[in-house]
Amino acid sequence: MKNKPGYPLLAKGRGLTDRLNRMLVRAMPGHCHFCLAGISGDRPWCDTCFETLPWLESACPLCSEPRPTSVPADMPCGHCLKKRPDFDASRVPFLYEGEIARLIQRFKFSADRRAGHVLFQLMLHALVSRPGQIQAIVTADLHTSRARSRGFDQTLWLGRQIACALKVPLYRATRLRLTPTQRGLSRAARKRNVRHVYRVTSALPDSVVMLDDVMTTGATLEALSTACREAGAVHVGACAIARTPAARAI
């Protein structure tokens, strides 16, 4: 059986892997993922560690660019005032630093399922803690060669967990071509790099949320948003785990 592009494992072994992953989670209850202190409940963190994570406390409501807490919460940043992004709003709970950056790196580049479970719980908390109708989740496939080199598609894995938890369908946007990495590119170059790179082949409901792991300039999510609107979505939101200040990418 051939592996389908973007899938974490061969379909034949995926069920066994998922069962082993659930057993691993159940086998490690009662301890905070970050400090190993005893905890109660089903969330893998203690209150102290949760509060000390690198929260994004003040951000642009459209692109989640960090800014001083003195700026009104509903005021878009300068970039969005000059050119509003294609998506309507974004939800990004953390800065890409400290424990959050380490979690993402372990999950993304080392396929650490325990880190993935913690990130899933944090992203789900960010989504359900803010009001708003979500009719579907949309993720963008990694190119086949990149998914093969990593061994799995981390955004697809997160999307499946989130969609299942929210009881909404998951849609996947097909990547039409392999693009160079976004690392080190300027804001303008990032937008050019991913322009017209995604396609959603299924008709979408009115209100969807796009998922990504890290948001820097929002170029990838904006390209995905364009594909979502072409597929019929009216309200398009974006959600990522962490935000890298866009200034770092220039």
Topology:
Layout: H1 11-27, H2 47-52, H3 78-82, E1 89-91, E2 94-95, H4 98-110, H5 113-128, E3 136-140, H6 144-150, H7 154-166, E4 170-175, H8 187-194, E5 198-199, E6 207-215, H9 219-230, E7 235-243
Parallel strand pairs: 1-7, 2-7, 3-4, 3-6, 6-7
Antiparallel strand pairs: 4-5
Key attributes of the depicted protein:
250 residues; alpha/beta; Rossmann fold; seven-stranded mixed beta sheet; 9 helices; 7 strands; disordered N terminus
Explain what the structure shows.
This protein is an alpha/beta fold and 250 residues long. It has a single domain (55-249), classed as Rossmann fold. Helix content is 39%, strand content 14%. The chain is built from nine helices and seven strands. Strands 1, 2, 3, 4, 5, 6 and 7 form a seven-stranded mixed β-sheet that branches. Strand 6 (207-215), helix 9 (219-230) and strand 7 (235-243) form a beta-alpha-beta unit. Helix 4 packs across helix 5 (113-128) and helix 8 runs parallel beside helix 9 (219-230). The radius of gyration is 18 Å and the shape is globular. Mean pLDDT is 82; it is low at 1-13.
